[in-house]
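Before drawing any conclusions, I looked closely at one protein's amino acid sequence and its backbone structure tokens, quoted below without any editing.
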Amino acid sequence: MKIAIGSDHAGYALKGEIVKVIEELGHEVKDVGCDCADSVDYADYGIPAAEMVANGEADRGIVICGTGIGMSISANKVKGIRCALVHDLFTAKATREHNDSNVLAMGERIIGPGIAQEIAKVWLTTEFEGGRHARRIEKISDYEA
């Protein structure tokens, strides 16, 4: 898979750790920035990462800021994106199985690199269950259209 990844300054360090996980799993990384810990605006990176997923340049995306909240709000403004803010393994799995999330948001100030790496692994390796969940996703897509 091709994975778009973006962070602001508050997620920059964690982004580097997550890039390693993506590559270890054999996926291609498409890094939209940021490239340092200097203060930047999360929307400048969350939206482009989500757009790459929405337009098919990437299969999924991961966005990281201090809390994950700003990035998830930004990503979810892009049509076709189902970005889930996740800080534990259960919801990482559930959001793929039940919500077919295509962008994952995490907060570097909320979780450490160890749990973040495990969340990324679970999220990247869990498939969508379909069935009744597909009907629910379709309702969201219909509203969005």
